Amino acid sequence: MPDLSRLMREKNIIFVTLALCLVFYMISPRFLSLDNMSAISRQIVPIGLIALGQFFVVLSGNIDLSMGMGSVLFAIVLGVFFGMTGGVALGIVAVIVCSLALGFFNGMLVAKLKLPAFIVTLSMLFCAQGLSGLIIPRGQQIFLMGGFFRFVGAEKFMGLYWSFLFLVALFALAWVVYNHTRWGAAVIAVGNSEENARLAGVNVDRVKIGVFMFSALCSGFAGIMLSTRMGFVQPGLDGNGLLLDGIAAIIIGGTLILGGRGTIGGAFWGLLFIGIINNALNLLNVEDVWHQVFKGAVILAALGANWILWQSRQVEAH
Amino acid sequence: MTTTTAAAPPRPRKAMDSLTQRYLVLIGLIVIASVGFSIANDNFYSLANLGILLRSIAVLFLVSMGMTFIMLTGGIDLSVGSNVAFSGGVGVITLTTTGSAPLGFAAAILAGMAIGAVNGVFIGRLRLSAFMVSLATFALARGLALVIYDANSINVSNTTFLWLGGQSWGSIPVVIPFVALVFVALSLVLYRSTFGRDVYAAGSNINTAFVLGRRPERTLVWVYVLSGALAGLSAIITVGRVSSGQPWTGLYLEFDAITAVILGGTSLFGGRGRLLGTILGVLLYGIIINGLVLTGTNPYLQSLIKGLILLGVVLLDTLVQRRQAQ
């Protein structure tokens, strides 16, 4: 049975996720109800967008810590434009422009000036937090009502939320880009070895700027999704929690944190895993104070598990 | 004749070492910043306020010194702020259940070291990236702190436990000479012990350190444990300062520490920097932050300014280094 054991090891996240579903189902049968399943599918959308953007950044050997607070800032940008014009079109354009600009800025600093990504994006995290609180004063909210927010937040198509379908479509697109385009191959090459990628004719700087622009765009989308789900925006939204969930999803999905290795499918399973854990913590009435403990422990455990897998592959290769 | 004079090497002008230059600049900036804030606020320069200022940044001093060791090895620790909350919680709970201050002190420091050891083992032994591991412990330690405190603060009245953080001799808080003592002790460790050499070696070139048998993986574990122990000490001081243990204390403290250390001239890539620079960095950064608080700046504007300071310093450093290299 070497094939089964290999499958168990390589695709372990699938089995762990299914086993987890079974356990939660036995504790509370409501867990697998259709209502709850569709609730999960909606809850994971912002996390999924963060995870997808972060996936390419991590694949290229970098990290974007500004994604969580960035999406809070972009949600507020959308809210402000909505409040001024009463429509969303201009707001969405503004979010896309702002997010691409932020991504370009991050990418330029990392690629051209060779600054470490975590320092650049850490300072951006604080700038985004500060800006979001300066745009809307502390304690105030902008309420978002209207057709668009109801449509994206609550309307379904064939039993599935539109927002979830958007996420799945984006993952599918990312899968194609990752597996079947030169750009996908270039990101992997940069993550494996910048020097080799450069020698092979890859424009390393452009790849880096590209992944940061994509991750910022994803956090812009995540901000829009966040605003449709909440129905209001305020600077106190938990951006860092979103960031941690997104990173946890891709690490659980087997993405190598040093770059150069990972799969979109794995990232998606990791996302489902995080979504299920978050949902179960609420459904089983686990006290709020425990949530962060679980998240930290899950990331640490996933880091350890990835390391063990990596080691066993090395042994196998010899 | 002319050939001999041309051949004679020009007398080498003794160039000031770039770190010393930086320290002079920092001292200048500290003077300018304090004069600026004392004009903006009459109370800034009173002796009492100096005591308050130093006491409020005492914790930043300790944490930043730990961060200096870590950054000298080329690592980073994003979990120190959460660790201050967590180890404070363990210390306060131990104090309230046993009623013994020494046990409380020991528990706080051991708890801090435990989180540090988790970081150290994952980063040093498993060779995982430091910001990723410490981001996980950032969430984990904060979560544990919330669990320990059940999301509420706990008042502390044990005078022995509060002594270090709360007591003053005249207008000098006890904690100031204590921080100075820690600085001297850590300087001895960094400059006069083989461990200190190993810290620099691990940061300069970890492969060479490994080949030379200096066991850099072990050095890495110990710097994170040291940083954890300093977080535990900081927790005791924080509890002493406000007479209560709070689950959200130390939020984003790691960010302040990283900025102060970089400001002090320690390289982000390891192997270069000194503790004295960190002290100056903390002083300058502390004066700016304290000044912003005293002048009643909007907290969101404060975080924007903090973000820009970090980015600005890193940018400036890189550009200056590029120019020197050319």
Notes on the structure:
In chain A, 78% of the residues lie in helices and 3% in strands. Chain A has 318 residues and is mainly alpha-helical. Chain A has a domain at 42-238. In chain A, the strands form two sheets. In chain A, strands 1-4 form a two-stranded antiparallel ribbon. A two-stranded antiparallel sheet of chain A has the order 2-3. In chain A, strand 2 and strand 3 form a beta hairpin. In chain A, helix 3 packs antiparallel against helix 11 (204-230), helix 3 crosses helix 12 and helix 4 crosses helix 11 (204-230). The longest helix of chain A is centred in the last third of the chain and has 30 residues, at 288-317. The two termini of chain A are 21 Å apart. The mean pLDDT of chain A is 88. With 326 residues, chain B is mainly alpha-helical. Chain B has a single domain, classed as ABC transporter involved in vitamin B12 uptake, BtuC. Chain B is built from 15 helices and four strands. In chain B, strands 1-4 form a two-stranded antiparallel ribbon. A two-stranded antiparallel ribbon of chain B has the order 2-3. In chain B, a hairpin with a 2-residue loop joins strand 2 (168-169) and strand 3 (172-173). In chain B, helix 4 (58-72) packs antiparallel against helix 12. The longest helix of chain B is centred in the C-terminal third of the chain and has 27 residues, at 216-242. Chain B is globular, with a radius of gyration of 21 Å. Mean pLDDT of chain B is 89; it is low at 1-6. Classes of the chains: A mainly alpha (318), B mainly alpha (326). The interface between A and B is large, with 45 and 46 residues.
Low-confidence stretches of chain B: 1-6
H/E series of chain B: HHHHHHHEHEEHHHHEHHH
Instruction: Give the radius of gyration of chain B.
Output: 21 Å
Structural class of chain A: mainly alpha
Which range does the strand content of chain B fall in? under 5%
CATH topology of chain B: ABC transporter involved in vitamin B12 uptake, BtuC
Low-confidence spans of chain A: pLDDT under 50, at least 5 residues?
none
Pfam families (chain B): BPD_transp_2
Organism (chain B): Antarctobacter heliothermus
Main location (chain B): membrane
Keywords (chain B): Cell membrane, Membrane, Transmembrane, Transmembrane helix
